[in-house]
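Task: fold both queries, return tokens.
Query 1:
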Amino acid sequence: MFFILKDKRTVSLLNCSIDSRLLTQLQVLERKEELAQFESMDCGKPIDEANWDMDDVSGCFEYYADLAEKLDDRQYSPVELPMEQFKSNVLREAMGVVALITPWNYPLLMATWKVAAALAAGCTAILKPSEMASVTCLELGAIAKEVGLPPGVLNIITGLGTAAGAPLSSHQGVDKVSTNCLLLLNSNRRQCCSVHSAFQRINSELLFEEMRRI
């Protein structure tokens, strides 16, 4: 289940221009109707709303593809210093392996918010969708493979929170955990994170704030 952690810097070896092209290709417009049908059947969402969600999914990948290109342009950006004899530049590096845990009510859309941000920032992602609605997230994995995303960059696991989510969020090879804030109310998960002194690695906004600053 955690085999990709052995090579946690896989995505960091890619430059952002490559990431942006792949993110653009991950847009689901060509399969919008099919994915909307899957979403509707999987979580009981009205088909019209599911179609709207697919439009938002496409827009999200396009948005983060644009941010990835801007991030590439800002690499090694100079920092002004009061003394001319010194020079300083900013190098932005990927955080590493991020675990992304999403709820059932917006399966693909909320997964896209996290996956697109993580990939644009150059991270390796492990997506754990809700056990109650994971079909479209698995389809996203198939699309990622079709467009040529390197193996190990986006990984998708399914299962109950106690069997998949808790071990993932407490694993020492995971650098950051992004989850819906309501999931933090789960006492078993909170206890698990506390035992491993890893609670500070959990953030319901993961990379969004960082990406907004670009």
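Query 1 returned. Query 2:
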Amino acid sequence: MACLHNHSCEEHDCSSEWSLYKHIDTPHVSALNESVAGSVKSIFKSWEQRLDNSSEFLESNDGDPELIVFIPFTSDVKIKSISIIGGTGGTSPSRMRAYSRFQGVANLTLHFPENFGAETTQIYYIGLRGEATQIKRDTVANIVYEAMPNPSEHKLPAETGGTSQVL
């Protein structure tokens, strides 16, 4: 079967080429209802490491299998597919909902409402395939919003050599 990028995917493994792993803003990935804070960052791996279940995983709190995962990107992306590798013994997610904007996805929220009957949900890998735009977003470092300006911080035209007129 010929694919859309000029070769047969049966002869060439193009999965890693289409992976969005390097475009995930991993330090800012977060999850709600995770049993170990920050463990969600460990489930984003390269395509080649997706089957390595010996490392950390994301697990929900006891008695509540629901998980919500927020995934920001470093540039806008077009998502083609999502791969999930879950735990054994009924701990894999049984359903998933994805929330994002339709044009130029800047972030993605995945909701795993239930699993196959276990007390907790476990996820070892989330893989995203698609295309990234080359547009990088700059982060805003400091924002100052003045609800009420402080006059001492603003020079009047008379103080800078201009004229001022009070009405």
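Both queries returned. Flag for query 2: Strands lie at 30-32, 58-59, 67-86, 97-99, 105-112, 122-136.
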